[in-house]
Amino acid sequence: MFTVFIVIIAIIAVLLILIVLVQNSKGGGLTGELGGMGATQMFGVKRTTDLLEQITWGLVGALAVLCLVSNLFIGTPQADAGINSVNVEKANQRSVPAAPAPAPTTTPAPAQQQPAPAQK
């Protein structure tokens, strides 16, 4: 079920990208790139900018709702399960080598103090 949500979200994201690219921006958008053919002529609707804006907001809303709803299908990890990974399994199978014994340290004998010279 989660995969279905991901596919639908991807389709909506691509549609949203295309709709945003078609819209007329300050620089002219794609309407200037289509040889002077305006967006109203391409879609045959007089108020195409309003329609495209409504479609954009609808797609954004659908994308947000689907992203939030898909979180319900992810599920929460169980505390008992832990992490399932090939690396974790390999690490559990290996034995930890014994630590080498520390080398004996010899402490030098304390320096013998010489008697203080007699004061006259």
TrEMBL record:
Q: Family membership, please give it.
A: Belongs to the SecG family.
Low complexity: bias regions: 108-120
Annotated PANTHER family: PROTEIN-EXPORT MEMBRANE PROTEIN SECG (PTHR34182)
Subcellular location field: Cell membrane
* Protein species of origin: Runella aurantiaca
Which Pfam families does the record associate with it? SecG (PF03840)
Main location as per UniProt? membrane
Tell me the domain of life. Bacteria
Query: What one GO molecular function would you report for this record?
Result: protein-transporting ATPase activity
> Which InterPro entries does its entry note?
SecG
Please report the name of this protein according to its UniProt entry. Protein-export membrane protein SecG
Query: Does Glycosyltransferase show up as a keyword for this record?
Result: no
- What job does the chain carry out? Involved in protein export. Participates in an early event of protein translocation.
GO biological process terms, semicolon-separated: intracellular protein transmembrane transport; protein secretion; protein transport by the Sec complex
Q: Which UniProt keywords apply?
A: Cell membrane, Membrane, Protein transport, Translocation, Transmembrane, Transmembrane helix, Transport
Q: One GO CC term of this entry?
A: plasma membrane
Transmembrane parts of this sequence = 55-74
The protein's topology relative to the membrane is: Multi-pass membrane protein
- Region named Disordered: 93-120
